[in-house]
Amino acid sequence: GTVPRRRPPRSDMGRALSLLLLLLALLAAPARAEGGAAAAEEVQIEVLHLPEACSPKSKKGDLLNAHYDGFLASDGSKFYCSRTQNEGHPKWFVLGVGQVIKGLDIAMMNMCPGEKRKVTIPPSLAYGQQGYAQGKIPPNATLIFEIELYAVNKGPRSVEAFNQIDKDGDKKLSELEISQYLKEEFARDGKKRHPSAHDEILADIFKKNDHDRDGFISAKEYNVYQHDEL
Q1: 153/155 Cα distance (integer angstroms)
Q2: 167, CA 20 to 30 Å: which among 104, 121, 156, 191?
Q3: What is the pLDDT of residue 147?
Q4: Longest Cα pair distance anywhere in the chain, in angstroms?
Q5: Alpha-carbon torsion angle 124, 103, 136, 152, nearest 10
Q6: Distances (CA, A) of 63 to 58, 59, 79, 135, 230
Q7: Closest CA to 80 of 3, 6, 138, 7
Q8: What is the H or E stretch that residue 48 is in?
């Protein structure tokens, strides 16, 4: 559950989701179960700025674009700043699916574009007893994040994304349809990949999503984050 590193190219945002986000959604591991001690600890949220027009509000499965700074509550030292990474571009990630630490998934619910929040996250909803040495976070650290949200979009598990891959409109995704989508996305992002990467990703998507093993990913199997009507 560290922070996502890449953002999709701007030209992609109008149409669907970048390959990266589709794959993150389709390949996402189930969230780890948290320890029982977490029940008493909650994320504290302080709203620093709320725009007059506050919609849409973020919900689980949405694709968010935000900047955030992270501080250790113990001494106020900054351990993370999204503005100093990736040429200063805000981060893209899917809310509520474990792409960021659990405390941030909770802290950024019901937030609207333009809103700023200061949130305090207990260790049980951050990096726990282990800490995160690579990120300079000691064991049992309470974290403070200052977050500015820029955009709330339909996420990779939205009806729109499903319908875009489902070319024949039969409400299920075949291997051919997903294969075609991967080809288009690979071509769009222009990175050189070994041909076997396509087959491995395709196989993994079906392994993780085709629960009844009928060779198709049904609307129900695909739509795990948002139970919209398809």
Answers
A1: 6
A2: 191
A3: 97
A4: 57
A5: 170
A6: 9, 9, 24, 24, 19
A7: 3
A8: strand 44-49
Q: Which residues pair with 176 in a beta bridge?
A: none
Q: Is the dihedral of CA 124, 126, 129, 130 positive or negative?
A: positive
Query: Do 104 and 59 share a structural domain?
Result: yes
**pTM summary value:** 0.63
Confidence of residue 90 (pLDDT cuts 50, 70, 90): confident
pLDDT in tens, 126-141: 999 999 988 899 999 9
Instruction: Let me know if 158 is exposed, middle or buried by CB neighbors in 10 A (0-12, 13-18, 19+).
Output: buried
Last residue of a domain, one of 153, 168, 194: 153
- Return the sign of the alpha-carbon dihedral for residues 10, 12, 15, 21: negative
Q: How many CA atoms lie within 13 A of 27 on its CB side?
A: 11
Q: Is 1 inside any structural domain?
A: no
Q: Mark which of 135, 153, 171 sits at the end of a domain.
A: 153
The span from the CA of 173 to the CA of 22, in Å, is 14
Question: Pick the residue with more confidence: 61 or 149?
Answer: 149
Report residue 187 as tokens. Answer: 């071509």
- Count of domains for the chain: 2
The rounded radius of gyration (Å) of the Cα atoms in the chain is 19
**Are 114 and 171 members of one domain?**
no
The answer on 146 and 63 residing in a single domain is yes
Going by their DSSP bridges, the two strands 91-94 and 78-81 should be labelled as: unpaired
